[in-house]
Design goal:
The complex is a heterodimer.
Chain A (H helix, E strand, L loop, with lengths): L2 H7 L2 H8 L12 E7 L4 E9 L5 E9 L2 H14 L4 H5 L3 H8 L5 H22 L14 E2 L2
Parallel strand pairs in A: 1-4
Antiparallel strand pairs in A: 1-2, 2-3
Helix pairs in contact in A: 2-3, 3-5, 3-6
Chain B lengths: L9 H5 L8 E2 L2 E2 L1 E2 L10 H13 L10 H21 L7 E4 L2 H16 L4 E6 L8 H10 L2 E5 L12 H5 L3 E8 L11 H10 L3 E5 L11 H4 L3 E5 L10 E5 L1 H6 L10 E4 L4 E3 L13 H17 L1 H20 L4 E4 L9 E6 L4 H10 L2 E2 L1 E3 L4 H7 L4 E5 L6 H18 L1
Helix pairs in contact in B: 2-10, 3-10, 4-5, 11-14, 12-14
Classes of the chains: A alpha+beta, B alpha/beta.
Chain lengths: 146, 413
C-alpha cells in the first residue's frame, strides 16, 4: 500500500467522521424515521428526523454499523441536510454527497456511501410523501441496496 | 498404517495458474479467496479450448462425427464426476449450472410432492443460503415446518438438539453442508445420514465447499443427494452437478422442461426421458462439463489426501499467525476440525475496510456475510473477513495477510 492509495480513500476528514460521528443517536421525538441495509457488506443505518415549519429539517440523528465509508458518509450527510426542506432532500442528487466525500469510489463502495442518503429519503417519503428516486419504483418499504 | 500421501508442492502447482503471472495494484497477487471461487490451471483451460477447436457440437443430437465426439467428451465428464463421488451409476449424475441449481432441483422436484403440514424440513445454522433458502421456501409453500440444527460456541453442530427438533413433527429432509463455507467446519454428515434414515428422512448434502478439498464418497457418507460446483474446484463457472440415488430420481418429476428431456411429445401429453436426461432440459453447458472433467483429472493427479493435508497445514499456520494479534478474533473450530478456511474480525474495523486496505496490498480476501446471514446473526456480527486456501496457496500469502492487518490496525486503530 502506498500512502497515496490509502489517503485517497480514507482521507482524514472521512476517518474523523467515522471515529467521531456527528449527530449520532436516534432522536427521541422524531417526525420521520427509516432504516436500510446493504446486504452485500452488512452495512446498516437508521435515520430519524425532526421537522419544523415548512418541513425544514431541524434535527437529524442516525445510528448504524458498517464500514468507514458508510458511517462517515452518513455523518457528513446529517451535517449537510440540517436546515434543508424535505423536498430539497428528496431532490438532492447523490453527487451532492459524493462531492462532499471527495473520494474515488468503486461501484461496490458507492453503495456504502449512498446508503444513508437513501434511508433519509425513505424516511421523508414515509412521513411526508416526498418522491423517492425514480429508479426505486413505487413499492419501496425498506431500503435494501443490492 | 495408511501410506502417507506425497506432499503437495504448492509452488510448483502455482506455475500452472496463469492468473498469478500478473500484478494487481502493482503487487504480485495473494489470492486468499478460493472458497468463493478457485483460480484455473492451464491444463483445464487448454482442455476446453481443445474441445472447442476440435470436437465441438451439440450432444445427443447429430448423427455426424463432431456430435459423437462431443457426446463422448460430455459423457466422459459425467463418468469422471461419478468416479470422483464414488457414485454407483453415471446416470445418477445430473449436470447443472452450479451446486445451487442442484439443490433447487432437489428442493423443488423432491420437496414439493413429498412435503406437507406436520413434516419437518431440517437445515443447519451453518448453512450457505443455497441449501437454506430453497428449503425454507418449499417448507413455507407446502406447510411443512422449517427448523435448523443450532451451533455450539465452537461453530460445530449441536447434535444434542436433534431430539427436541423431532418433537415438531415428522422429519422428512435433513439438508447440510459437508464443509461450512463461512467457518470451515467439517460436519458429521455420516451421523446425520444415519439419524435421518432411522426416521425415514432423506439427507441432502451441499458439497460445494468440500468436493474441491477432500475425498467425497456418496456411499460412505450415506447421503441421498449431493451437489457440487465446478468453479470452486479448478473448473469453469457455469457447470456443476447433483448426484441422487437412482430410485429417488426415478420417482421424481422433472425440474426444467423443454428439449432433450422428453421421450415422446404429443399435444395431449409428454412423457419424460430416462436418467439423467430427464433432468437436463435444453443444451447443457457442454464445453464447461468437459472443463469440469479436466479439473477433476487435475485434482485427482495431485491427490485429495495431499490437498486436504496442505490446506490443513495452512489453516493451522494462519490460525497461529492470527493468534499472535490480540486485536484479531477468529471464528470456528480448532484447526484439526476444519478445512482451509479462516474467518476473523479486526477489533473495531469493519470487514469491508479491512478488505479494502488489504486490496491495496494485493491481498484478496472475502469480506461480508458469505451468504450465511443466519450464521452471522448467531455470531453476533454483521460480517466477517475470510481467508481461504487452495492447492496453489503458499505461506507467504498468509504472511502478507498478517502484514496487511498490521497496516489496517495502524490506520483505523
Amino acid at each position: 500500500m502506498t500512502t497515496g492509495e490509502f489517503d485517497q480513500l480514507y482521507r482524514e476528514l472521512i476517518l474523523d467522521h467515522y471515529k467521531n460521528p456527528r449527530n449520532h443517536g436516534l432522536l427521541e421525538a422524531a417526525d420521520a424515521q427509516a432504516e436500510g441495509q446493504n446486504p452485500l457488506c452488512g452495512d446498516e443505518i437508521s435515520v430519524s428526523v425532526r421537522l419544523g415549519e415548512g418541513d425544514v429539517i431541524e434535527d437529524v440523528g442516525f445510528e448504524g454499523r458498517g464500514c468507514a465509508i458508510s458511517q462517515a458518509a452518513t455523518s457528513m450527510l446529517t451535517d449537510l441536510v440540517k436546515g434543508k426542506t424535505a423536498e430539497d432532500v428528496a431532490s438532492m442528487p447523490k453527487e451532492a454527497l459524493l462531492d462532499e466525500l471527495g473520494i474515488p469510489l468503486t461501484p461496490v463502495r458507492l453503495k456504502c456511501a449512498i446508503l444513508g442518503l437513501g434511508v433519509l429519503k425513505l424516511a421523508l417519503h414515509k412521513a411526508k410523501g416526498t418522491p423517492l428516486p425514480r429508479e426505486w419504483g413505487t413499492s419501496v418499504r425498506d431500503l435494501v441496496l443490492e | 498404517m495408511a501410506v502417507t500421501a506425497p506432499k503437495l508442492d504448492a509452488r510448483r502447482l502455482r506455475a500452472d495458474f496463469p492468473i498469478f503471472e500478473q500484478e494487481i495494484n502493482g503487487k504480485s497477487l495473494a489470492y486468499l479467496d478460493s472458497a468463493v471461487t478457485s483460480q484455473k490451471p492451464r491444463q483445464m483451460l487448454d482442455a476446453m479450448t481443445r474441445f472447442y477447436e476440435t470436437s465441438y457440437g451439440n450432444v445427443h443430437r447429430g448423427v455426424y462425427a463432431l456430435s459423437e465426439r462431443a457426446t463422448a467428451a460430455f459423457e466422459g465428464s459425467r463418468q469422471k464426476v461419478q468416479a470422483l463421488l464414488n457414485a454407483p451409476e453415471a446416470r445418477e449424475v445430473i449436470f447443472t449450472r452450479n451446486a445451487t441449481e442442484g439443490l433447487n432441483l432437489v428442493a423443488y422436484a423432491w420437496g414439493f410432492p413429498n412435503l406437507g403440514p406436520g413434516d419437518v424440513v431440517l437445515v443447519t445454522e451453518l448453512e450457505h443460503h443455497s441449501n437454506y433458502v430453497p428449503w425454507q421456501y418449499v417448507a413455507r409453500r407446502t406447510g411443512a415446518t422449517f427448523a435448523a440444527i443450532p451451533l455450539d460456541d465452537n461453530g460445530e453442530l449441536e447434535l444434542a438438539a436433534l431430539d427436541g427438533i423431532e418433537r415438531d413433527g415428522q422429519v422428512k429432509v435433513v439438508a447440510t453442508g459437508l464443509v461450512s463455507n463461512a467457518l470451515g467446519t467439517v460436519n458429521p454428515v455420516e451421523k446425520l445420514a444415519a439419524w435421518a434414515h432411522e426416521r425415514g428422512a432423506i439427507l441432502v448434502v451441499d458439497a460445494a465447499q468440500a468436493a474441491p478439498h477432500r475425498t467425497v464418497d456418496v456411499q460412505a457418507l450415506g447421503c441421498d443427494f449431493l451437489a457440487l460446483s465446478a468453479h470452486k474446484m479448478c473448473g469453469p463457472s457455469g457447470v456443476g452437478a447433483v448426484w441422487g440415488r437412482a430410485e429417488l430420481l426415478e420417482t421424481m418429476e422433472p425440474f426444467n422442461l423443454g428439449g432433450h428431456m422428453i421421450r415422446r411429445v404429443t399435444f395431449e401429453e409428454t412423457t419424460w426421458g430416462e436418467l439423467p436426461h430427464k433432468f437436463e432440459a435444453g443444451t447443457s453447458p457442454i464445453a464447461e462439463a468437459v472443463g469440469f472433467g479436466a479439473a477433476i483429472d487435475y485434482l485427482t493427479a495431485i491427490g485429495f489426501e495431499a490437498i486436504e493435508q496442505h490446506e490443513h497445514e495452512l489453516a493451522e499456520y494462519a490460525l497461529g499467525r492470527l493468534g499472535e494479534l490480540p486485536w484479531v478474533v477468529t471464528y470456528g473450530p480448532s484447526a484439526d476440525r476444519r478445512a482451509g478456511i479462516v474467518s476473523f474480525n479486526v477489533e473495531g474495523v469493519h470487514p469491508h475496510d479491512v478488505a479494502q486496505v488489504l486490496d491495496f496490498e494485493g491481498v484478496a480476501i472475502r469480506a461480508g456475510h458469505h451468504c450465511c446471514q443466519p450464521l452471522m446473526r448467531k455470531l453476533g456480527v454483521a460480517a466477517t473477513n475470510r481467508a481461504s486456501f487452495y492447492v496453489y496457496t503458499v505461506r507467504e500469502e498468509i504472511d502478507r495477510l498478517v502484514d496487511g492487518l498490521h497496516k489496517v490496525r495502524k490506520a483505523f486503530g
